[in-house]
């Protein structure tokens, strides 16, 4: 970690808006020796994501300064995956990172493509199968994935929703915790991506598929990397039957035939809803979708009306 002149690892002073982040972007790029003139803001959510025009480089500024350890690990994972010739996001070799500028965590990534294009569900299965065969080095220091701890922390910070909704989500978590403790996982324990879905596999400008968003890498039962594709098909209809069949064929395992599927699906779904709850104060669309999803959890109906985020 390298701090800028106004860097404070314990909290930022910059307002997390396009205007407030411009000085952060400029200082970070100056420290990295990169030209940020004309940089394009692609997204502003839990991260601000910029594309530089001078070089094929993406700059990511995290809203939450506590993500420093995650981003240090993500950079290390990217460098290690490159040594394995694994198709994933790369980091510029010449840039020492992460950087801390005005208390915010800044990382730099090689741009995968010039226009956003996702790869296929079948290619996701191929990459997950290949990833799950790799044996991670101890030097990465990957954490154990504890979904219940992660969910508890997320719910504890859920300030923008009603007390009633928050209490409901906490009660549902407590019930699922007991079911989760009884699960008998059948796939090997090891390295997972942690957020493996169609949204995190892009088509590289040279044509091949690459995994992105590497900060969720952890050690866990491999079922966690399969659950999103399964529920995107089974519960929300975001994948077709043919797409899911292709995913199963190419990975070699159908999670929906495993007895623990419904419990894992319920838990992953709850994590998705809680994540969305953190966006309700910044977006009317997020607030409406959060309300729709909580209503579904309460009634058991209407999941086919969920919109992808």
Automatic annotation (TrEMBL):
<dbReference type="Pfam" id="PF01636">
    <property type="entry name" value="APH"/>
</dbReference>
<dbReference type="InterPro" id="IPR011009">
    <property type="entry name" value="Kinase-like_dom_sf"/>
</dbReference>
<dbReference type="InterPro" id="IPR051678">
    <property type="entry name" value="AGP_Transferase"/>
</dbReference>
<dbReference type="InterPro" id="IPR002575">
    <property type="entry name" value="Aminoglycoside_PTrfase"/>
</dbReference>
<feature type="domain" description="Aminoglycoside phosphotransferase">
    <location>
        <begin position="46"/>
        <end position="262"/>
    </location>
</feature>
<protein>
    <submittedName>
        <fullName>Phosphotransferase enzyme family protein</fullName>
    </submittedName>
</protein>
